[in-house]
Amino acid sequence: MRSLLDAARECLDATGIDAKIALTQRHAAAFLRGESAVPADAPPADPIGMPGRPPRPALVHPRHLPRRGFGSSEGRAAFVHSIAHIEFNAVDLAWDAVYRFRGMPGEYYADWVRIADDEARHFTLLRGRLQALGHDYGDFDAHNGLWEMCEKTAHDGLDRMALVPRVLEARGLDVTPGMISRLRALGDDDTAGILEVILREEVAHVAAGSRWFRWHCERRGIDPVTKFRALLAEYARAVLHGPFNIEARAAAGFSDDELAALMDAAAAA
Questions:
Q1: Cα separation, 220 vs 218, whole angstroms
Q2: How many distinct structural domains can be found in the chain?
Q3: What is the rounded distance in angstroms from the CA atom of residue 92 to the CA atom of residue 11?
């Protein structure tokens, strides 16, 4: 039986767009069929710098990304590209959660393999839409914020679950409904329909982060709300922006106290 950890590392190291997506789909399907598993005696993870990336898009500081409206064809394509970039990064984030953190329950690995597969499908949908708009992934500059937070939380699975799914990726729960409304108003039902699929499925992804954050807290005897507030203050002030989608975040496992912590941290940012 193949090691799931080796499969995850192969996906992380893949540099080509098509290769990373195809490997993700292949290894996720093999895991679902019971053809791979996490070895009980797995050694610690080898260091990871940057995951494999295609030569484009160029990665720049977020402040250097131009603001484009939805009204023009170019602006619409740039918007779809930005979401596709998030989903492409999310494939690596999910495989990193599998590869980096050892000794977790089997359900943990099942969650993140499923999420990697979902993110690959989301990227494929968005890339197809981008191509229909006359562009492809890599045609616009992008930023590296998701992976930078991945590196900052590499030392601790608790921090990773608190901050990557529940802060950075959960931002999509807040902003996507408004994007869908604007796209529908502009008559772009194709893009809006893809975002509706992603929004629905991302709730479950953020919920996995909530579940495993609480698992870590319970195991260590830590109050999750107190810890979440501390992590927001330490890592996330610059990336917290309201308003928050309270309904979606509650469905994704945020307690009332955690939602209050988010709003407090955003107000203090």
A1: 5
A2: 1
A3: 8
